[in-house]
Specification:
By secondary structure, the chain is an all-alpha fold. It is built from 7 helices and no strands. α3 packs antiparallel against α5, α3 runs antiparallel to α7 and α6 packs antiparallel against α7. The protein is elongated.
Length: 165
């Protein structure tokens, strides 16, 4: 997408206080919901004494996060707000790189991994939240569509590794 599209999108989001607040709250709330579901899944697997799946649910997201971080350093893609001169809705502590989105990668790998451990309920919740989080990251001006798409693909494919465990 061209930078002008992100500038227009950012102007539209900031033009509605309700939309800007929704994007900001969604970004935070969805991240917390995903973390709670992840924690629930880990505890559930421990209670069931499914230690192999537990190990997979820890290792697969961890390895995926490391890979996503490495890819970001390799591609060195600046964020939309840095390139388009826009004010991000989602607050950023640093000007780190954007491709792929680690938030989205993590959400999808957790969702796919939960699905692979037969925890369908939490998996559906996490994957739904991951889709909404993808939109919030783009609307928030901190990621391009390609960043969240790459994160979704990477997270989902890596999440399938849980079936090895």
């Amino acid at each position: 997408m061209k930078l002008a599209w992100y500038q227009k999108l950012n102007k539209h989001v900031w033009g509605s206080k309700a939309l800007a607040l929704t994007v900001l709250i969604a970004n935070e709330a969805l991240t917390w919901i995903i973390m709670v579901c992840y924690g629930y899944g880990l505890i559930k697997l421990l209670v069931r004494k499914e230690f192999r799946h537990f190990a997979g649910l820890v290792l697969v997201p961890l390895v995926t996060f490391v890979i996503a971080t490495w890819l970001r350093k390799e591609f060195r893609q600046k964020r939309p707000y840095m390139r388009a001169g826009i004010r991000p809705v989602v607050r950023k502590e640093s000007d780190s790189y954007s491709f792929p989105s680690r938030h989205v990668t993590s959400a999808f790998v957790i969702g796919a991994s939960l699905a692979g451990t037969s925890l369908a309920g939490p998996a559906v919740i996490v994957l739904f939240c991951a889709l909404l989080l993808s939109a919030a990251r783009v609307l928030g001006g901190v990621h391009y569509i390609r960043d969240v798409a790459a994160g979704a693909v990477l997270g989902t494919l890596m999440g399938l590794l849980i079936f090895i465990f």
